[in-house]
Amino acid sequence: MKHFSLNTLLCTIVVASIAIAPCESDDKLITQTCSKTPYPSQCFGYIKAVYDSKDVRDVPGLGIIMAEVLKLKAQDPKDILFVLLGVGKRPDIQAQLKTCLESYSFIINTAIPAAIDSFKIGKPRLAEDYANTAALVVSKCEKSFNGKSPITKENNITHEIARILGAIAKQL
């Protein structure tokens, strides 16, 4: 009976080791990739927060995950801008709000899908260009309010993620 228990224990340890090994390598890949971005800890946190990141085995996959994070995070400022435009209580900033809304629509509807496609077809430079363009239009949005927009916090987050995405694409 002891022999059977020892074999069972050894098999359990081997199976557990095999199951744990991919998780360690995933964290290693994420850590190595994120360490080469302007915001390593934020990069790691954003990627690990996505459930599907556990299945990613390469840098292009991490780029796709980060692009999806950017799309998700860009939706918040877009929604806020849409509401602010609808309320219309501040006619003095309507033009800036509209321009920013157009920028976020571009990021969500054009830049992110194109960046994801670029990773999938092996054209990371295009993904980098789209990410850099997203960061640029968000900066322009904030500057149009002299750095005091109604979505400064959201602009900063979106800009940060776009820069991370560009840095990931640049590694390829």
UniProtKB/TrEMBL annotation:
InterPro entries: Invertase/methylesterase_inhib, PCW_Enzyme_Inhibitor, Pectinesterase_inhib_dom
The keyword Signal appears for this protein: yes
UniProt GO MF annotations: enzyme inhibitor activity
Ranges of residues in domain Pectinesterase inhibitor: 25-168
Keyword Disulfide bond: yes
Coiled coil (residue ranges): none
PANTHER family given in the database record: PECTINESTERASE INHIBITOR-LIKE, PUTATIVE-RELATED
Family stated for the protein in its record: Belongs to the PMEI family.
Protein name according to UniProt: Pectinesterase inhibitor domain-containing protein
